Amino acid sequence: MSSDPQKLQCHCFRMKIKKDTLEFILGVSKKFHPNEFGGLLRGKNDIIEEVLIIPASTFGKKFVTTRFDMIPIDYSIIGSVHSHPGHRFKPSNADIRFFKKTGSVHLIVRYPYRGIEDVAAYDRDGKKIDLEVLDKKH
Ligand SMILES: [Zn+2]
After folding, report:
1. What is the CATH number of the domain that holds 68?
2. Has residue 29 got a pLDDT over 70?
């Protein structure tokens, strides 16, 4: 527990995601479809390594109703992920309000959840950032 939350406010405009993590996100999004899936991202520096699924009771059409008391206190959380069961990537105003409170990188996965082409990354202001997939060799 030596992490300093300030350090995690990275202003990088390129994020990386482990291939396994990406596949996990796509799989869970498919499973929840046509409902929205939501989770928190864990990682180090500019690499997204893991997803924490937000407890099932909080799922529904309104991701912003997430119960913050259910989210474990964990400073390795660097952002969030949620699915858009429609085709749109664009974060809603509610999404952006949530982004500002939840870290520095936010992924939106859109239907049909095929691969990296259906994943977009945003910063806390809802500005698009680059996302690169890391395969196992890294
Ligand atoms: Zn959304």
Report:
1. 3.40.140.10
2. yes
